[in-house]
Amino acid sequence: MTANRTPLSELEQGIPFEQRHIGPDAEARAKMLAQVGYGSLDELTAAAVPDVIKNAEALDLPGARTEAEVLAELRALAGRNEVLAPMIGLGYYGTFTPPVILRNVMENPAWYTAYTPYQPEISQGRLEALLNFQTMVADLTGLPTSGASLLDEGTAAAEAMSLSRRVGKVKKGVFLVDADTLPQTVAVIETRAEPTGVEVVVADLSEGIPAEIAERGVFGVLLQYPGASGAVRDIKPLIDAAHGLGAIVTVAADLLALTLLVSPGSLGADIAVGTTQRFGVPMGFGGPHAGYMAVQDKHARSLPGRLVGVSVDADGNKAYRLALQTREQHIRREKATSNICTAQVLLAVMAGMYAVYHGPDGLKQIAARTHRYAAILAAGLTAGGVELTKGVFFDTLTARVLGRADAVVAAAREAGVNLYRVDADHVSVSCDETTGREQLAAVWAAFGVTADVEALDAATEDALPAGLLRSDAYLTHPVFHAHRSETAMLRYLRRLSDRDYALDRGMIPLGSCTMKLNATTEMEPVTWPEFGQIHPFAPIDQAQGYVTLITELEERLAEVTGYDKVSIQPNAGSQGELAGLLAVRAYHRANGDAQRTVCLIPSSAHGTNAASAVMAGMKVVVVKTAEDGEVDVEDLRAKIAQHRDELAVLMITYPSTHGVFEEHVADICAEVHEAGGQVYVDGANLNALVGLAKPGHFGGDVSHLNLHKTFCIPHGGGGPGVGPVGVRAHLAPFLPNHPLQPTAGPETGVGPISAAPWGSAGILPISWTYVRLMGGEGLKRATQVAVLAANYIAKRLEPHYPVLYTGPAGLVAHECIVDLRPLTKATGVTVDDIAKRLIDYGFHAPTMSFPVAGTLMIEPTESEDLAELDRFCDTMIAIRAEIEKVGSGAWPAEDNPLRNAPHTAAALGGEWNHAYGRDEAVFPAGVSAADKYWPPVRRIDGAFGDRNLVCSCPPLDAYDH
Description:
Layout: H1 8-11, H2 17-21, H3 26-36, H4 41-48, H5 67-79, E1 85-86, H6 99-106, H7 109-112, H8 124-141, E2 145-146, H9 153-167, E3 174-178, H10 183-193, E4 200-203, H11 211-214, E5 218-225, H12 236-244, E6 248-253, H13 264-267, E7 271-275, E8 291-295, E9 308-312, E10 318-322, H14 328-331, H15 345-383, E11 387-388, E12 396-400, H16 405-414, E13 417-418, E14 420-423, E15 426-430, H17 437-446, H18 453-459, H19 486-498, H20 520-523, H21 529-532, H22 544-561, E16 565-567, H23 573-590, E17 598-602, H24 607-615, E18 619-623, H25 633-642, E19 647-653, H26 665-674, E20 678-682, E21 702-704, E22 725-727, H27 764-797, E23 816-819, H28 821-827, H29 831-840, E24 847-848, E25 855-858, H30 866-888, H31 918-922, H32 942-947
Parallel strand pairs: 1-13, 3-4, 3-5, 5-6, 6-7, 17-18, 17-19, 19-20
Antiparallel strand pairs: 2-8, 7-8, 9-10, 11-12, 12-15, 14-15, 16-22, 21-22, 23-25, 24-25
Helix pairs in contact: 3-27, 4-27, 5-22, 5-27, 6-15, 6-19, 8-15, 8-19, 9-10, 15-17, 16-17, 22-27, 23-24, 27-30
């Protein structure tokens, strides 16, 4: 009877998560290895990865645990966070996410696993949602052109400073910031300003611009509206005075307040910035949240970040796309004024849908309720003898309590409410959508006041003056009026998501972007209240679960990369680049080497590298790329010699942007170090290194990592992301810090990179969970299978398309580049034709024309199983046969399935006058009619969209369903 017994100890282990994350099983791996010509994963990576960089030892990480065990650990961590009523304010507020949006956007892989909408034909749902967001922001700010979101309010304000300097008439002078601006915003601006030589002056502007400042010249002014203290004042005279000095005026405005208050645009502002967090996006201990920027029309083409515009498709139908200039850091590189290469798309979609669901009347009601609570709270405090510093406010009060601030804050906390201690004599209190009568009573009690809500409500007037009340209409477009019922909203969200292509449909084989599994277990904790509803400036002892999670994640990322210290504050890869370069700059200056400002960057590098270097006050010197795709070592040596005394840093991507492990990387690093420089290893391609090699051990001094790539935070349609920065010990004193949270970074740090102390902390449980589920061995195998999958695709496609770059063993790293240029020359079929034809086959295209024009860069990741890898390879081979038919003349060069791709369902109707059949168009080999993905539009005319930039409301006919 015991012969068939399975020991309980084995049964208790459960199914390892590694088997869920890694697509190919053991049998599939064997087939793939045979195709590539190796007997095991270890044999393959031994041949692919240069000996000089290989890890000598296994990763020192806790062993892998099951999904159930890790969720239990997370529950324990969450239990150590204390959720109190968030009445701290400072730009972060309690909000109620409508469940239909929570479930069907934030928790829906159709939205969160999508890639950036660079292939607009299969991103129409997301682009329409972003256009809703832009329309919402433009309407509420009273400015005609809004971007598709920025990273947070602090960085948006810093971007406004750069924009003001670029477009304004005053080319010198200072950037003037009102003293009643959010403190974290001021700090981020100062961090950004110092390396570029901009002088920031913070002054009390309540009585106007001081004459001594005006005499120095002012190129830009930033005003908070309402102020950080809660004050609401008429800022039009101040804006007019600033314009009289030739300054560009930015207003950092609260969108909820703008449903009641006159808009910045009507007051004369040039730029408006802020956050949309309180539009249904959880606080998440600081992020991710969608920042916003809106500008006057004349500045539209200088807008940083992304901008959704309206173009036409091949049939002349309206279609959405990203406007070209919104990738300026790739085009302008070291001439770019911003390194922003992402938006906060998922959060912008949520905020926009919050406005769609509530409409203008609903938003105004939420704002009026919020203000009403603040007015009643103020009346009660005043009646009880508490002095308020401002008599006109929207949602925030500042009380003067001489010497009693600590006692008041402590008493409120005991009653379950967090207030903000401004200083020993002042306490600030903010109301929001979640404030109720219970919170008012608790706050009154904390101040030693007793009051009655009903009596005060009957006797208290609102605190907003008639002259500042908004009278113009906003959110007039039908989309903000059509979806009041949950049924209507649910169907609208489904209709939009059906127009898109995300990982829940199939493989997204984008090189350099690592579109891998975002496991449900990793995603689930993000929306738990204990993680989602913590204010970023809550007392640190209320966030001990977060502190432990952050500390453990930083330590584990340090172990994976070989660095000594990691900061997770940067809330995008671009911001991680900036943080790392600022650390290098500060290190050289601390050593008395302020002349070291030259940054060497290979010509193949990501565009953000050059833009980040300029923002960090460095001079970019480009290093050539050799024929084999590696850094041209001879040119590098010549540049090191030429700039030896000024050399600050070399920025390289490893494995290279061309998808190969460079043999000479350790030598390159050593030569830079010998010349007194530092080495920055861009972590974009870390998915090829984890468990195999550590940048901090083969010569890197600093790297940023992309948690939305290697460590499973989803791309969310173009954001959120986290870009931690890892450094060796000598750079650790210069990591980011934060003025409102001393434990977030070193006292000697360069200042904050993002508005919140730990950046987008709300999504860090995803990466923590991934590392905990996989363990060191699992992470290594994931890397090995990623390398295997890329080489499998390269070997299968090589007889049909040239593979552009390989290493000494004829192997690639985690991605490969197929060269289409000979085919284009011979047949006229372009990289665009192939990318769009892939849509007909049910695929998102690989990365087009980067880093080499006329190529496709393919990265399969470890999460795609063999069936999907083969489906992709079979499709590319079938497309190669189609190209041959064009080349042979069987299909005309201007009328074939590639040139006309993608084909919509509508294109099949009526008369068919093409040289190929309907079935060839829409049901090519391997495509099932039952499972067909139908693109909503045909190929979009990008040139038309750039000539005719339209970025306001969605067209009315878009809603004729």
